[in-house]
Amino acid sequence: MPVHLYAGRNIIISSGQDRQSFENLHHAMFVFQAEKIVKQFNGNLALNQVSLDVPEQSIYGLLGPNGAGKTTLIRIINRITAPDSGRLFLNGHELSASDIYTIGYLPEERGLYKKMKVGEQAVYLARLKGLSKQESLSRIKHWFEVFEIRGWWNKKIEELSKGMQQKIQFIVTILHEPKLLIFDEPFSGFDPINTAILKKEVLALRDKGATVLFSTHDMGSVEQLCDHITLIDKGRTILQGEINDIRSAYKSDTYEVRFTGDINLVRPALKADFELVEQSTTGGTGTAKIRIMHHSNGNELLALLINKIHILSFNELIPGMNDIFIRAVKDNT
Amino acid sequence: MSKISLIIQREYITRVRKRTFIIMSVLGPVIFAAMMIVPAWLSQVKEQDVKKIAVVDSSKLFRNVIPETELLKFDYMENTSLETLKKTYAQSGYYGILYISQVVTYDPNSVILYSDKQPNLATKMHISNALENYIKSLKLSTYDIKDLDMILKSIKTTINIRTIKLSEGGKEKESSTGIAMAVGYAGGLLIYMFIFIFGAQVMRGVIEEKTNRIVEVVISSVRPFQLMMGKITGIALVGLTQFLIWTVSTFLLVSIARAVLFPNLNLNPTEKVLTQDVMTSGQTVAPAPEVPAEPSADMQQLMTAMQALKNIDFVVMIGSFLFFFLGGYLLYASLFAAVGAAVDNETDTQQFMLPITVPLILAIFVMIGAINSPGSSVSFWFSLIPFTSSVVMMARIPFGVPVWEVLLSMAILVLTFLGTTWMAAKIYRTGILMYGKKVSYRELAKWIRYKG
Question: Which of A40, A113, A133 to mutate to test the interface with B (most CBs of B within 10 A)?
Answer without folding.
Answer: A113
